[in-house]
Amino acid sequence: MTVDAQVIGSRIKAAREALGMKQEELARILGLGSRQIVSGLERGTREVKAAEAVAIARALKVDLVTLLGEALDTPVVQWRARPADGAEPTESEFLRWCERDRRILTLLEQRPSADRLPRHDFDLACSTYVDADRLAREVAASLDLGARPARVLAAAISSRFDITVWYLDVPAGCAACTRGSHGAAILVPRGDAPWRRTFDIAHELFHLLTWRDVSSAPPGEHSQPADEHVEKLANAFAASLLLPGETVLDELEERSVARRVKLVELVAMARDFGVSLETLVWRLHNLGCWPDQSAVRELLDSPRLRGIDKASQQGQWSEPARLPERFVQSAYAAILRGRLSRSQLATYFGCGLSELPAQLAEFGIDESLTELVSQDVSVGLQPGDLDAPVTPCAQK
Amino acid sequence: MPRSRPRCLILDAGPIIGLHDLGIWAVFCERFGVVVPRIVLDDEALFHSRDEMTGFSEKIALADDVAEGRIVVGSASLNELAVVAATFSAALELHDGELEALALLTLHEEFDEHVFCTADGAAIQGACLLGVAERCEPLEELLAAVGLVKSLTWRYTREFMAKNKREGGERRITGFGTTG
């Protein structure tokens, strides 16, 4: 079999355009003399060495195997807010991880699937906050999220809905989601506060559950931010999901004395539920506490409350793992079955081959122990060894 | 008496790192004709390691070995990589450098006499699917052949190689993992 240079050239061109990159820029990154060389690559008139192709793939934020493999549908990405300096590089990075996830599952003979994610017939244009709240209750019940949903949400949507959450280095607030042939995934800014990340996940879950098929949209219009009304519904859904009404009101009552709650208790409650103070206070407002919106704003602007909130964040800030637990476990399963190379997984981790055991150890994988098991060390038994009469031990 | 021609090998990143860890890389290169795929050579990230004593990150640099002729660099074309990758279909995913090693092994006449030394189960199984299992040798075997007996981790042993050859052979027979 040979690969049509023109086909690969067209994939290079598509990957470059998806990044919004000009031929001149690619030529500069690759250290090529002129734009014409890139043009020759894309037209398939210039022979490419494998090592050059690797450099091209890296510059274009795709894996070489993607350039070599069959062309797949362009997945749709829905942004909450696009990065100010252009969404294309981040989107390519996000989709590359989704594609890697799909490939790993394929290696394990599992089909990446968005089928386990229920699709709700939700008329987004006509829906209200009450509808979003109802959906949140249904989802919380089906996922069995309990009284503190933030603590289990990411794991629950991964195991029950097959949604992979990727924490990437993108600007704050630039969360996104995608649903398609590669499955369903959520992109969360890695550097955000833990409570912000959890809210992002809940918010994007709403978009995935009410996903509209826009694959028939014209090229270039696939990846769009949702409209303002839908964003408000997603926020309402997220607040309801993370702060179940009855539970939150019961907790507030527990923490109140004579119908007054100390500011420090309010902040402690936000941390306990794994949400921001703003999310908690506005949720309480929507549940009937402090019905006056200006009073809520005044409360949130209170320097004293801000100070307590800031102090409470000390020691609560944690970074998410570099890669999703499920992805790493699946990749390691593929390694054990001889279907994925360790060097490739090291590349995914962005680490050296020697550092891979330490990276895996962070996910509870002990390579040395696994190797012992793989060696199948056994002791030979002689005929009759298992026929010895069983007699009780003589006890003194 | 003329010296016999040294055996020639294509190495991927695993054995290169292992030989450096054992401190016998230079000796090894004297005893064998070593070929390193261009992509493996260029992927500096793979050769980073963190020194356990100092905590500093170090890396293995092979540029001097190339410049002074101690190792040879092998380069495949993109088309050759595509041919090898297509053989595996969607059932095997290798590092690009391992794909290049297998392309050199199977598609380049100048490397017809070379054997492939790898410590990666998927790469060994890839060689099996390409029908060149007999040209894979474990580091343990190669070191023993030149009297460099060392205690090696599991991935460099004959047993590891045999296990993956067996599994790769089964996959080749059952047809799983090839495009047919």
Instruction: Tell me which CATH architecture of chain B applies here.
Output: 3-Layer(aba) Sandwich
Oligomer: heterodimer
Number of domains of chain B: 1
**In what order do the strands lie side by side in the largest sheet of chain B?**
5-2-1-6
- Helix count of chain B equals 9
List the helices and strands and how they pair.
The complex is a heterodimer of chains A (396) and B (180).
Chain A: H1 5-18, H2 23-30, H3 35-43, H4 50-59, H5 64-68, E1 77-79, H6 88-107, H7 129-143, H8 153-161, E2 163-168, E3 176-180, E4 183-189, H9 194-209, H10 228-242, H11 245-255, E5 256-257, E6 260-261, H12 263-273, H13 277-286, H14 293-301, H15 303-312, H16 325-336, H17 342-349, H18 356-361, H19 367-374
Parallel strand pairs in A: 2-4
Antiparallel strand pairs in A: 1-3, 3-4, 5-6
Chain B: E1 8-11, H1 13-22, H2 25-31, E2 33-37, H3 38-42, E3 48-50, E4 57-59, H4 63-67, E5 71-74, H5 78-88, H6 96-107, E6 115-117, H7 121-129, H8 139-145, H9 158-174
Parallel strand pairs in B: 1-2, 1-6, 2-5
Antiparallel strand pairs in B: 3-4
Fill in the keyword field for this structure.
heterodimer, A: 396 residues, alpha+beta, four-stranded mixed sheet, two-stranded antiparallel sheet, 19 helices, B: 180 residues, alpha/beta, Rossmann fold, four-stranded parallel sheet, 9 helices, 46% helix, 12% strand, globular
